[in-house]
Amino acid sequence: MVSVNMRLDHIQILSPKPAELAAFYAKTTHGQVREFTGGHWLCEGPARQLLVAEGPPNAQGFSAFVVETQAELDVLRGRCDILPSTSPLWGGRDAFAVEDPDGNRLEFALDGGQPSVSDPWGRLQHLAVRSPNIDALVEFYSSAIGLKVSDRVEDDQGRTTTCFLQSDHEHHSLAIFGASEKRLDHHSYEQADWNAIRDWADHLASLDIQLNWGPGRHGPGNNLFLFYSDPDGNWIEISAELEVPGDRPLGVWRHCERTLNLWGRAILRQ
C-alpha cells in the first residue's frame, strides 16, 4: 500500500450549547473564540483549531486531516467512497470527506502550512473515539485510509480492546477504544515536557477545574498526561513527550490498568 503522511489539522465537536462550550475552551486553552460561518463557533490558537456546532453532546461532527502533496491526496481519494467536504476552514482548498463504519466523518485536504508549535498551550495532536465495532474500525483505518497500528491492547482472550494508529512520525493521531457505545472519547493537546504538564494543572486549578485523571504515564505512547472534562462531559487530554516509534515492531499490551497508566490507577472503558 502506498504510504500517505497526514496530520490532524482541526476537529468539529457538537454541543447543545455551542457558544458556551466554545467559550469554555477559549478560557481553558487561552484561545480566541468567535462566531463563525454556518452556525459554528471557532476556538483557535497558534497550533489548534476547534469548531463547535449545535448537536447532541459527546459527538464529533468530523475530524480533518491534511496531507503534504496532491499525489497523496489523490491516493486517498481513490481508496474510499467520497463525500463532499463540509469543513468551513479549508478556504477553497481541494478537499473531500469519507465516513468510517461507525459513521464518523473524516475530511482531507492539502496542507496549507505547518502550524507553529511555540504556543505554550499546545497543538492539537490526536483524537480518540469509542466503538462497539473496534475490529471494523481498525480494518478501515489501516486498510482504506492507510494508518499504521503502532500499539494494540488485548484482553485475556486475545480480543483487541484498544488500538493506537499512526499517521505521521508520532505514536498516534487516532485512538480507538472498544466500548458499548459509539461516541467521542477525547481529543489531545501536545505539550513540550513535564513542566508544561505542571503548568497546565496549576492553570486549571486557578479556574477551579478539577482533573479527572492523572498526572500519569501511558504505556502505549509512553507519554505523560492529565485529563479534564468540558461542560458536556467530553474528555480533554494534555500530553507531553509522546513516543516517536520509528521502525519498531507493533507493540501488544495486556488490558489492565498498568497498561494505560504505568504510575497507578487507570480509566478502562467498558
Describe the structure.
By secondary structure, this protein is an alpha/beta fold. It has two domains: 6-110, 2,3-Dihydroxybiphenyl 1,2-Dioxygenase, domain 1 (Roll); 123-260, 2,3-Dihydroxybiphenyl 1,2-Dioxygenase, domain 1 (Roll). It is 18% helix and 39% strand. It is built from five helices and 16 strands. It has helices at 18-29, 70-77, 134-145, 194-206, 257-260; strands at 6-15, 32-35, 41-45, 48-54, 59-67, 95-99, 105-110, 123-131, 148-154, 160-166, 174-178, 183-191, 213-217, 224-229, 235-240, 251-254. The strands form two sheets. It has a nine-stranded mixed β-sheet. It has a seven-stranded mixed β-sheet with strand order 2-3-4-1-5-7-6. The protein is globular, with a radius of gyration of 18 Å.
Shape, principal axes of CA atoms: globular
Q: Could you give the order of strands across the largest sheet?
A: 13-14-15-12-8-11-10-9-16
What are the segments in which pLDDT stays under 50 over at least 5 consecutive residues?
A: none
Mean residue pLDDT = 94
Provide key terms for this protein:
2 domains; 9-stranded mixed beta sheet; 2,3-Dihydroxybiphenyl 1,2-Dioxygenase, domain 1; 270 residues; alpha/beta
Topology:
Elements (H helix, E strand, L loop, with lengths): L5 E10 L2 H12 L2 E4 L5 E5 L2 E7 L4 E9 L2 H8 L17 E5 L5 E6 L12 E9 L2 H12 L2 E7 L5 E7 L7 E5 L4 E9 L2 H13 L6 E5 L6 E6 L5 E6 L10 E4 L2 H4 L10
Parallel strand pairs: 1-4, 5-7, 8-11, 9-16, 12-15
Antiparallel strand pairs: 1-5, 2-3, 3-4, 6-7, 8-12, 9-10, 10-11, 13-14, 14-15
